[in-house]
Amino acid sequence: MTEKKRMLAGELYRDSDPELVAERRRAQGLVDRFNVTTSTQEAERHAILTELLGALGDGSWVMPRFQCDYGYLIRMGANSFLNYDAILMDCAPITIGDDVSIGPRAQLLTALHPMTDHEARRQRWETARPITIGNNVWLGGGVIVCPGVTVGDDTVIGAGAVVTRDLPDKVFAAGNPCRVIKHL
Known about the structure:
- By secondary structure, the chain is α/β, with parallel strands linked by helices.
- It has helices spanning 3-8, 18-35, 42-52, 118-122; strands spanning 13-14, 55-56, 61-62, 66-68, 74-76, 81-82, 86-89, 94-96, 101-102, 107-109, 111-112, 125-128, 131-133, 138-139, 144-145, 150-151, 156-157, 162-163, 171-174, 179-183.
- The protein has four helices and 20 strands.
- The radius of gyration is 16 Å and the shape is globular.
- 33% of the residues are buried.
């Protein structure tokens, strides 16, 4: 099995594999082009994102600076917004629903490293788990979503929260670690 197939299957893999390195370089070239566009180059920004991302729904947009690993593992629904300085580590699929607003400097991080096997970590083995953001979700500025998390529909996450586990539909959650504050 190739390292890419291992990565996509959620198994241990090495990101130094030449195929994965080439895919990240391709994505970085597109990200670099996107990040130097100006506010008057909306059509060019959209064209770059369409080439980079796995899906970009109608009416959705991303503000620069934007960073990602591969791009094609990110699927963004319709009418969604990703604010300035977002980091999406898409070593596993990242799915963003419709009508989602993600605040500045948010991080959606799918990558994991071995916790108890220090030798495997030293040898640069890693895994990844998908992130799913439901419809009509609002992530405040600086929110960090950890690997394997699903955020339910109509949920609001307060600024600076670190989301380490799934959140249900229709709640306000905040804190580090993030917890449900109230039902909406």
